[in-house]
Structure formats: C-alpha cells, structure tokens
Amino acid sequence: MTDLPERSPFVDLREALGRIEKQGVESIAEEQLSVRIDANRFRRSGIPEVVFASNKSPAEVADALRGLVEANGRALASRVRPENSGEIRDALEPAISVESFPVARALVASRPGTQPHQRAGVVGILSAGTSDIPVAAEASLAAAEMGATVLEAWDVGVAGLHRLVVPLERFVAARTAVIVVAAGMDGALPSVVAGLVDIPVIGLPTSIGYGLGAGGVGALTTMLQSCAPGLVVVNIDNGIGAGTTAALIANRASAGRGI
Length: 259
Fold this sequence. Notes:
Layout: H1 13-22, E1 25-28, E2 35-38, H2 41-45, E3 50-52, H3 58-72, E4 74-78, H4 82-92, E5 97-101, E6 106-110, E7 122-127, H5 133-145, E8 149-153, H6 165-173, E9 178-183, H7 189-194, E10 201-205, H8 217-224, E11 231-233, H9 239-256
Parallel strand pairs: 3-4, 7-8, 7-9, 9-10, 10-11
Antiparallel strand pairs: 1-2, 4-6, 5-6
Helix pairs in contact: 3-4, 5-9
C-alpha cells in the first residue's frame, strides 16, 4: 500500500482570500460609507447575516440591506432607531419592500413577494414581564426569519407563576424543540421552565430591573448559576443570538424527524 502524503491543515494567504471571496463577502464603499456583507452566511452556517443598525447611519444600513436582499431575497436589520426607519425605507423602496417591527426594533427588507424558507422547526418564546417583550420579540423575529414556526407568550413571570401553565402546555403539544425565556430582574423564569419540561431552554437575560441587578447583570448571574439542567444562556439583551440559535436547533430537530 502506498502511503499518501499528509495534507497540511494550513493554506497560503492567496488561497484563503480566494475562498473568502467565493463565500460572498463583499465590500460597499462610497464616500464615508464602509460596509461589508457576508451574503453566504446563511448557506454556510444556517444563520443569515443580521445588520446591526444601532451605530450605523441610515445610508449604511440601507446599503447593507440592499446587498443582502440582492443576494438572498430577504434581510433583517436589528436595533433600528425609530428616527431612522423612514430614511432607510425611502432609500430602498419601491424596488425593495420594507416591513417595520417597532416592538422588536427591527426592519425586514425583501424582494416583493419573497417569504422566509419554511424549515418546520418549532420554537417557543416566553417573556417574564411586559418590559422584557422587546428583546423577546427580537428573538421571535430572528427565529421566524430562519423559517421556524414561533409560538409566543408574554408576561408569564414568576411573580404570577400560574400564568405559565397554559403556554407550556401549548408548547409541549406543538412539539416545540426549544424554548427561549427572556427575563430581567432576578432572571428566575428560565430555571423554572427548565425544571418543568423536557425541552432545551435558552435563557435570555434582559437589562430590566432595579438596584444592584440593573443592566441585566442580576438576571445573567442567576441564569448562569441555575441548578436546573437543560438551560443554556446568551448574553444580556441578545435577542438575535437567542432567536437564531433556537431556530438552528429547532430546524435541525425537525429535519432529523423527517418533517
């Protein structure tokens, strides 16, 4: 038997740059604009690129969305400042449709008539309090844009635990693959949920609350210190991270069941 030469795990710089170009990483540069889009991220990782709009100008957000829509048909912008929504919309329409989600502080841009790819995964989203809804809604929208079916229930925190029963029954009956639980203050709800169902739980701490735990640190610490197995935690207010991870889990679970 002839020994095959070992393949080096390393590639030279030119080959690496070529591979990156093939993956659809592009630059947009005009005057003061400098935006790079990763158009093939969804094909590569199952999670689409999301435009984080908070610290970008409306023109930069619009250019990034335009490039992603041209490549993929749809694109999501998160943390859109309300005063910038109209300018972003004006820069894209009518060629590109723009749908606003004020509660989630997000925009979805798309070619007219383009819908998310339906992946059959089912994700549950809970908010502990009404003030946690914006972050929970961001997670919900991110999961929906990845094609998951999303079930929601708001204001079901531990201060009125009886409110949790009906939503959890609905989630279990729908064969929900993963549950995202957004909670501020003491952040106790994810631990409670993880102790009640045989479904993976993603804890989503929010920056809601008084005193020492303000800014979400208390909620984050509580979730990280949970004694309930089956609970994992994302960073404070990271609705995009929670929603996309939940959809990735749910979509793979449904594919494994042949749905």
